[in-house]
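Figure 6 in text form: structure in, sequence out.
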């Protein structure tokens, strides 16, 4: 079988699997968030923490609860790293330095999982599974909770209540993420992923030398790393390491895990607003963008760049021979489109335009299909912008899902859209302007060096976590700057999204008339795709011309 045929077959099988679980998983999640019944374990949890599960919150209280919970998580994860040496299962590793501990805590709480360290020689087993893996669950649950709150803003009328953060967080963790993670862990172990508490395995290399490869609870962290669109690996090589991703089947399964919840949430959205066609429309936009970037990445990597790669038949530098070009490009597109950040190949070694495709994909705001929850609420906010643009063109008040889009809503949408580019471009500008930051760039005399810095801040601001490996980011400047960008890029947009939910929930629905733009048809899908690309292109195009475009051309 040719590489092209095998590549098309794996893409087709992936889409078939996603289609098979779309309806049942999307429907199940809708029932989770609309049910008024609590499980026994949930009732015990609420009683323990003094939560009234029947009391809905205003958007302000919901936001303060979320911020307080995330701040506490940040502090606890920081302390866990700083006290590592005196804790069980530390493997004798020292305490994590303060700057790196802050960066890592901010990274995992913000669902970014940027890693400026080699996990094998930095984090013990306790920090890995009780700190990092726990935050993989909780940060993913926070994103889904925000998406559900925004859906309620569209679905409810004449109320200032958008749900209860503590209920949404608990139900997401216990009813959705944990059951899937348990089944996924068993599947990964069956495929050959490591799951133990070993301190290391002695192996002999091909040249006769011995080396120690650490074991650990890898499969249980790997599954939530992908399912929660987190991305932080147990090993420095991430999903290119055979202990994390041993074969082609596990590779395809991990891509499936990255996509499954963001895709299924579009059906949850359609069911909760009582119009399944709206969910299909949002899915259509996400799918169109994902397919376009998958094609572009695959084309550029198979095409190669330069005489050597074309003579070799493909650009295989930095890629696992177990996966090849097609599986590497498919993984890269899925991970940069879902804010996962996991990698099964070195994005830094992609062709200039192939790496630029991954970078530009993140710059869309990671809405194709986006992270767990973040992709959906990001796309819904862009949908509000799209109907506003359409309203300007026809001269009538824009409406979306029977809610008027007034000046207040557009101010919140504008602030949401501008936040991430602001922190990304300011951060990249400071890094290029400071000598201490420029000293960390490996390719100092080429556009690729600028691409490495731009990729780092884009990854941090969009809560992705993947990197161009040529940048040495474990220095005080990058640990602090990227940590702040991750926190601002995560929580400032969340506040604006929740404020939008509260504003929409207070409105009285308006009746659909002949002048109302149908937001479930192909015309709106096209308009929304164009809005995503144009807004992104106008924002980041000047920066892209200095990096990947200059290098590629």
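Output sequence:
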């Amino acid at each position: 079988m040719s590489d092209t045929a095998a590549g098309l077959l794996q893409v087709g099988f992936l889409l078939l699997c996603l289609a098979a679980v779309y309806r049942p998983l999307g429907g199940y999640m809708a029932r989770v968030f609309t049910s008024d019944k609590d499980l026994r374990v949930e009732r015990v949890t609420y009683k323990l923490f003094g939560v009234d599960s029947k009391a809905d919150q205003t958007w302000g209280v919901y936001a303060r609860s979320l911020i307080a919970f995330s701040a506490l998580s940040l502090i606890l994860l920081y302390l866990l790293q700083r006290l590592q040496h005196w804790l069980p299962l530390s493997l004798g590793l020292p305490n994590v330095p303060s700057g790196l501990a802050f960066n890592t805590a901010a990274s995992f709480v913000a669902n970014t999982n940027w890693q400026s360290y080699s996990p094998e020689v930095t984090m013990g087993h306790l920090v890995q599974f009780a700190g990092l893996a726990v935050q993989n669950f909780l940060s993913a649950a926070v994103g889904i909770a925000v998406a559900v709150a925004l859906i309620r803003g569209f679905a409810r009328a004449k109320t200032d209540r958008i749900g209860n953060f503590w209920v949404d967080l608990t139900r997401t963790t216990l009813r959705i993420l944990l059951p899937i993670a348990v089944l996924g862990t068993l599947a990964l172990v069956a495929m050959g992923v490591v799951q133990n508490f070993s301190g290391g395995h002695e192996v002999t290399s091909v040249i006769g030398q011995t080396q120690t490869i650490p074991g650990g609870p890898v499969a249980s962290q790997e599954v939530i790393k992908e399912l929660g669109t987190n991305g932080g690996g147990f090993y420095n090589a991430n999903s290119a390491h055979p202990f994390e991703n041993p074969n082609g089947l596990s590779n395809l399964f991990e891509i499936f895990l990255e996509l499954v919840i963001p895709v299924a949430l579009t059906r949850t959205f359609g069911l909760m607003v009582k119009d399944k066609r709206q969910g299909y429309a949002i899915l259509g936009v996400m799918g169109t963008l994902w397919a376009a970037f998958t094609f572009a990445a695959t084309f550029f990597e198979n095409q190669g760049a330069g005489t050597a790669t074309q003579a070799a038949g493909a650009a295989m530098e930095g890629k696992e021979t177990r996966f090849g070009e097609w599986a590497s490009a498919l993984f890269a597109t899925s991970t940069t489109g879902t804010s996962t950040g996991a990698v099964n190949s070195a994005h830094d070694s992609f062709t200039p335009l192939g790496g630029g495709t991954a970078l530009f994909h993140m710059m869309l705001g990671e809405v194709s299909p986006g992270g767990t929850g973040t992709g959906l609420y990001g796309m819904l906010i862009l949908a509000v912008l799209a109907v506003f643009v359409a309203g300007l063109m026809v001269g009538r008040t824009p409406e979306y899902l029977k809610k008027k889009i007034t000046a207040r809503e557009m101010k919140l949408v504008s602030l949401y859209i501008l936040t991430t580019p602001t922190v990304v471009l300011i951060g990249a500008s400071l890094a290029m302007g400071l000598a201490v930051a420029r000293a960390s760039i490996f390719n100092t005399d080429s556009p690729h060096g600028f691409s490495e810095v731009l990729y780092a801040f884009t990854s941090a601001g969009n809560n992705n976590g993947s990197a161009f490996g040529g940048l040495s980011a474990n220095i005080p400047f990058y640990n602090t700057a990227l940590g702040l960008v991750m926190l601002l890029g995560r929580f400032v947009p969340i506040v604006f999204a929740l404020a939008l939910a509260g504003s929409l929930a207070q409105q009285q629905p308006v009746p659909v008339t002949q002048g109302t733009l149908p937001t479930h048809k192909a015309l709106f899908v096209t308009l929304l795709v164009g809005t995503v690309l144009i807004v992104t292109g106008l924002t980041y195009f000047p920066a892209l011309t200095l990096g990947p475009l200059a290098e590629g051309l």
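Caption detail: Strands lie at 201-204, 210-213, 399-400, 403-404.
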